[in-house]
TrEMBL record:
Protein name: Ferritin-like domain-containing protein
Lineage: Bacteria, Pseudomonadati, Pseudomonadota, Gammaproteobacteria, Lysobacterales
Organism field: Fulvimonas yonginensis
Keyword Lipid metabolism on entry: no
Keywords (A to Z) from UniProt: Coiled coil
Coiled coil regions in record: 48-75
Short name of one Pfam family: DUF892
UniProt biased composition (Low complexity): 152-164
Record field: compositional bias (Basic and acidic residues): 167-179
Highest taxon, organism lineage: Bacteria
Region of interest (Disordered), residue spans: 149-179
Length: 179
């Protein structure tokens, strides 16, 4: 389907975020298991429940407006999920991995915030007020999740990772000095 109207653009963007949410719903349990910090793990679990609700809201929008979403894969979220997988595979469990997981999760949140902001504006422009309200509710949840991730980073994860890194650097330097 080519995009020739605002309605086409709305459907395209809605299809894209629907795919993104589905991909994120599959990735969040793995992120939760990979987190060392229990508060971070709980934040991922909470966001999984929110994500399921957000998918339901998109379904509501589709039903309300009698739309057909396009079958597509969100390339942006696919890349972000791949980055998270790489973090899990390459950084040992601990504070540094947690800091990297938070950074990656915030990239995903910012993608979603941009997407839902656009969808809200398009819905309003098209006169889809009920859809705009549902999408705005999701936008606010995404902003709250981003804020919570920032708090987790600032309240410990980043400091713990920095301290662990400095300790590792001192250990490596001492080891080199002996040789």
């Amino acid at each position: 389907m080519s995009i020739k109207s605002m309605q086409d653009l709305f459907i395209h963007e809605l299809s894209d975020i629907y795919s993104a949410e589905k991909q994120l719903a599959k990735a969040l349990p793995r992120l939760s298991r990979a987190a060392d910090n229990q508060e971070l793990s709980k934040a991922f679990d909470k966001h999984l429940e929110e994500t399921r609700g957000q998918i339901e809201r998109i379904d509501q929008v589709v039903d309300q407006l009698d739309l057909r979403l396009k079958r597509m894969k969100c390339q942006g979220m696919e890349g972000l999920v791949d980055e998270a997988r790489e973090i899990i595979e390459t950084i040992p469990q601990g504070a540094l991995r947690d800091a990297a997981l938070i950074a990656g999760a915030q990239k995903a949140e910012h993608y979603e915030i941009a997407s839902y902001g656009t969808l809200c504006a398009l819905a309003k422009q098209l006169g889809h007020q009920d859809a705009a309200k549902l999408l705005s509710q999701t936008l606010e949840e995404e902003k709250a999740t981003d804020k919570r991730l920032t708090e987790l980073a600032e309240q410990g994860a980043n400091q713990e990772a920095a301290q662990a890194s400095r300790g590792g650097e001192r250990h490596a330097a001492a080891s080199e000095a002996r040789h």
